[in-house]
Amino acid sequence: MVERFLEQQPAICATLLSPEVRKGQSDLCTLNETDVSNAEDANMTGTIGDSPMIHAIKNAITTDLLKRYNGEAEKKILHTASALDPRFKGLPFLTVEEILEIYRGVTEEAASLENERTLRRTEVIDGPSAPKRKASSSSLLVSLLGRSFTDTEGTAEPKTPYAIAEEEIERYCKASSLPLTEDPLNWWRVHEITFPLLSRVSKRYLCIPGTSVSAERVFSTAGDVVTAKSSTLKPEHVDQLVFLQKNLHIPKC
């Protein structure tokens, strides 16, 4: 793959820089699923028949990829995102101790989010501007017969957010895994009522883009908007034009 790229690099660069090609961008061919699969299966280890240039490129790619996933914080984010993906929640690439640690962290984060949500809701209800209510005194009937006719044994104590999160984790792990061809976001939308605490945590991790391609495309769009002829555009106008370019889809007649 690298050898073919080096052979065709001058022709590719000249073609992409051609004004005629840039005018007809809709006619350009894009990578299909087969091309992506072949690129993912590319062997980046050095072989005997590689030229010095190809060997150096493979080493540079391998070194860069290894450098990106060595941090403990990055690994924790990736493992947590995999645990919250119903397709990979089994985490077969980790040990049993590591799996328990990841799900323990998910439980703590889900309980923490629920505690913060409850605190915000309490602050809204009992805000500083709300008038303080006087505690109502118990009635004479309750004070006389309350002990005899109040069922205190059958009243269950409310569960803590951590206990609720543990129950959701247990039910989530026992549920059947999602096929690889299905969309995990649709799965969470359907099961949001069943796993209310876990669904909030999943939104924090599954919204992270896997690549920076979308961000790079936005920068390319901004470069097409801010040209030499339109260099006096205000920043807010540039933001509006880029937003419209990326989100306004006009159907072809």
Automatic annotation (TrEMBL):
Domain HAT C-terminal dimerisation: 168-248
GO MF, one example: protein dimerization activity
SUPFAM superfamilies linked to this entry: Ribonuclease H-like
Pfam families in the cross-refs: Dimer_Tnp_hAT
InterPro entries in alphabetical order: HATC_C_dom, RNaseH-like_sf, ZnF_BED_domain_contain
Leader peptide range in chain numbering: none
Domain of life: Eukaryota
Name the record gives this protein: Zinc finger BED domain-containing protein 1-like
Gene from which the chain derives: LOC117558185
